[in-house]
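Morning run. Coffee first, then this:
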Amino acid sequence: MPKVLVATLVLVVAVIAVLVIFSSTPRTPGDGFYDTFAACLSDNDIVMYGAYWCPHCQNEKKRFGDSFRFVSYVECTEETEKCTAEKIRGYPTWAFPDGRRFEGEMGLERLSAESGCELPKQQ
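And here it is:
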């Protein structure tokens, strides 16, 4: 085959591969994708206690993207009395109104299962 035809075929295959990859990539949370889920957690009085320096807290926040603004969050480096009163021993701690507490990263799926708040479906 001529070099031009091979180069054209390689380019077409590359373009198709890129389109397939990007069309199947889940939506990023940066577009408010988890707003309803995050608001549901807050509406159900589920609170995340954390610290700005905590890498596990940062991971949880990143999972929500900009939707994290709807999560009830207590920054324990600023609200130390509240965290002490709640006997927060590790970060992050997710506190539920029924007294259940989960220390460490939960991830969105587990938060959904424990809270009853539905995660939006990825398209």
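The chain is about 45% helix and 10% strand. Good start to the day.
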